[in-house]
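pls design
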């Protein structure tokens, strides 16, 4: 969601414009005093509260007290607060007030770098260890967020906290903490369904849920089957990285509903890519091959997605796109292939192209990209050595 940069007077306009460019924000100006902003408002308090309720990040070029007094009635749940920052009119200081671990600290650092100022970050975990347990990096999720505060407080107080990693996934981002092998309090890295009254559960996104379904299958049935499969495997849905299927199902509502249910992206592969996984299939099907060109849809899609994650990933920080023609709707992706697939198949849904022409275009684009990588780009190590 695009951050709102709040301008209350003309003296803050120049800095506000620079700040908005630095964080891809939107200028909101107090109409009686400022003109030329993307959004104008006439009442400061109500406008700030509306933005906050919408979950919009707020950067106010004003006294911190203005933001605090305006938003105080809404401060009920810190886990749901959007970033709120006070930025000095001259850009000299950016102060995260709320949502420090939800993006405000990072936004303050970006603003400070762009404006030549200072980020006044005050959260203890960030200052001492550079990370915060209640804001894990991309690809990690909290199983019991309420436990993060107690574990973090113990670490800051110098009390022993143990790390138990039940997975093969490195937990290097925790290396700045003085963790021990055994202690009453624990940080548990797991993919399994479990409860912990004495520890913080961290889930790396390592599991791919491969699915296939009949045309126009009921979404609730697919979701129920997926939940059942995860429970049978004793896997937590918090460990899901994505939902995967064959591209023939790219327009299937149930598959997209399943991905939304688990709050993960959905990936689609063509039949040739899935068929490449046939030697590893536990349950290959000739019937599925006759229908789709692959001996396995759900299993093949899962293997294809895992293989790409191991040998070369297209994962990226979140891409968010909005449109004036669809107000209030935001599409989000954390994988470039998923993004490219949705753009490509949108041309089918809109009636612009047939599926075969989209596949030809995607294949051409992949080959051009590979040619550029192989012929023009150099490995980072080579570039660094020069």
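designed seq:
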């Amino acid at each position: 969601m695009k951050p709102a940069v709040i301008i209350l007077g003309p003296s803050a306009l120049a800095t506000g414009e620079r700040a908005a460019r630095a964080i891809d924000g939107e200028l909101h100006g107090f109409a009686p005093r400022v003109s030329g902003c993307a959004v104008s408002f006439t009442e400061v308090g109500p406008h700030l509260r509306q933005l906050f309720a919408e979950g919009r990040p707020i950067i106010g070029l004003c006294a911190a007290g203005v933001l605090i007094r305006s938003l105080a009635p809404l401060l009920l749940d810190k886990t749901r607060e959007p970033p709120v920052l006070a930025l000095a009119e001259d850009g000299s200081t950016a102060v995260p007030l709320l949502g420090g671990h939800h993006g405000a600290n990072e936004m303050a650092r970006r603003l400070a770098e762009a404006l030549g100022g200072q980020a006044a970050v005050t959260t203890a975990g960030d200052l001492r260890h550079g990370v915060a347990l209640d804001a894990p990096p991309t690809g990690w999720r909290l199983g019991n967020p309420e436990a993060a505060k107690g574990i973090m407080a113990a670490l800051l107080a110098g009390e022993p906290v143990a790390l138990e990693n039940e997975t093969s996934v490195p937990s290097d981002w925790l290396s700045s903490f003085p963790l021990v092998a055994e202690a009453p309090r624990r940080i548990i890295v797991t993919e399994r369904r479990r409860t912990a009254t004495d520890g913080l559960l961290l889930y790396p996104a390592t599991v791919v849920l491969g699915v296939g379904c009949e045309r126009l299958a009921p979404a609730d049935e697919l979701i129920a089957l997926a939940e059942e499969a995860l429970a049978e495997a004793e896997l937590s849905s918090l460990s899901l990285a994505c939902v995967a299927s064959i591209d023939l199902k790219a327009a299937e509502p149930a598959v997209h509903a399943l991905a939304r249910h688990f709050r993960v992206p959905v990936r689609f592969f063509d039949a040739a890519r899935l068929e490449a996984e046939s030697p590893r299939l536990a349950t290959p099907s000739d019937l599925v091959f006759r229908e789709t060109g692959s001996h396995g849809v759900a299993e093949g899609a899962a293997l294809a997605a895992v293989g790409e994650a191991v040998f070369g990933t297209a994962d990226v920080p979140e891409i968010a796109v909005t449109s004036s023609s669809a107000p209030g709707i935001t599409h989000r992706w954390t994988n470039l292939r998923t993004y490219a697939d949705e753009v490509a198949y949108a041309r089918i849904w809109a009636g612009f192209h047939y599926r075969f022409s989209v596949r030809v275009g995607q294949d051409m684009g992949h080959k051009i990209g590979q040619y550029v990588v192989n012929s023009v780009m150099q490995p980072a190590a080579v570039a660094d050595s020069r």
